[in-house]
Amino acid sequence: MPELPEVEALGAYLRDRAVGRRVERVEITAISALKTYDPPPTAATGRTVVDAARHGKFLDVVLDGDLHLVVHLARAGWLHYRESFASAAPLKPGKGPIAVRVRLDDGSGFDLTEAGTQKKLAAYLVTDPAQVPGVAKLGPDALAADLATFADRIRGRRGQIKGILTDQSVLSGIGNAYSDEILHAAKLSPFAISSRLTDSQMAVLHEATREVLTDAVSRSVGQRAATLKGEKRSGLKVHARTGLPCPVCGDTVREVSFADSSLQYCPTCQTGGKPLADRRLSRLVR
């Protein structure tokens, strides 16, 4: 799933390539992806792209006349920029990976695609990003929150710190991958209870959040959309590295699997050397 650094980079790429271009048309090929109907997609025709912003993990393509194409790429979605399209003919609705195509006046544009069978990519055409339910519920941006705000938000929702970090209403922008990386950098168990963190642990967690996200943004911005996924993988130390050695201590990276997700961690760095039980109702290691 694209998280804060990747969405920031996609926004930077669109600002560099698409700003100043007029929208020729917006084609919706997956009806389920479009979550709004007023204004209709045709309202974007002839509008100029004036900015590309980010709200948590939402990408906001800003058009003149106060119109916003807000996109959440979900787990398997992506943005593919095309310098040109093979055909000028409108796409036909179907079962392919393309959910939305935006054609620009210079012949370029971008596709919003989604792999797999679970179609959760969401696109909204609105006059105010706050009209998007997910945007309206976002907590402070994880990269922008100062220590006091960060600590208040974390302690305000009691639970396992892994889940708290990925709760977009607490702090926005962090997903499954970077929460693993942040907790590894902070040397905290993913099952540590948020309300029990000491002031010292909270300060370390805040600093780890800033360092991990800042580093990921610096490596991502400037990349083409096609290379962002590879750049993300290259910077990971524990996430998606089950069975490989931890680059900090050399211990084997372990995994806890859930119904539809998993987390990775280093026992030596994070749980005092004790592995976490790999089942949904694991006993907490604090």
Give your account of this protein's structure.
The protein has helices at 4-17, 133-136, 147-155, 161-165, 176-186, 199-220, 228-234, 267-270; strands at residues 23-28, 49-55, 58-63, 67-72, 77-82, 98-104, 109-114, 122-126, 254-257, 262-265. A hairpin with a 3-residue loop joins strand 3 and strand 4 (67-72). Helix 1 (4-17) runs parallel beside helix 6 (199-220) and helix 5 (176-186) crosses helix 6 (199-220). The chain folds into two domains: 4-136, MutM-like, N-terminal (N-terminal domain of MutM-like DNA repair proteins, Alpha-Beta Barrel), CATH 3.20.190.10; 147-270, Orthogonal Bundle (Helicase, Ruva Protein, domain 3). It is of the alpha+beta class and 286 residues long. 27% of the residues lie in helices and 20% in strands. 40% of the residues are buried.
What is the strand and helix layout of this fold?
Elements: H1 4-17, E1 23-28, E2 49-55, E3 58-63, E4 67-72, E5 77-82, E6 98-104, E7 109-114, E8 122-126, H2 133-136, H3 147-155, H4 161-165, H5 176-186, H6 199-220, H7 228-234, E9 254-257, E10 262-265, H8 267-270
Antiparallel strand pairs: 1-6, 2-3, 3-4, 4-8, 5-7, 6-7, 9-10
Helix pairs in contact: 1-6, 5-6
Q: What is the CA–CA distance across the termini?
A: 28 Å
Number of helices: 8
Outline: elongated
Q: Determine the mean pLDDT.
A: 94
Number of strands: 10
The CATH class of the largest domain is identified as Alpha Beta
The strands making up the biggest β-sheet line up spatially as 1-6-7-5
> Strand fraction band?
15-25%
* Biggest beta sheet attributes: 4 strands, antiparallel
CATH architecture assignment of the largest domain: Alpha-Beta Barrel
**Helix fraction bin:** 25-40%
Looking at how many chains there are and whether they match, the oligomeric state comes to single chain
Residue windows where pLDDT falls under 50 for at least 5 positions: 280-286
Output the structural class: alpha+beta
How many structural domains are formed by the residues? Answer: 2
In angstroms, what is the radius of gyration?
A: 20 Å
Write the CATH homologous superfamily of the largest domain. Answer: MutM-like, N-terminal
| H and E string | HEEEEEEEEHHHHHHEEH
* CATH structural fold name of the largest domain: N-terminal domain of MutM-like DNA repair proteins
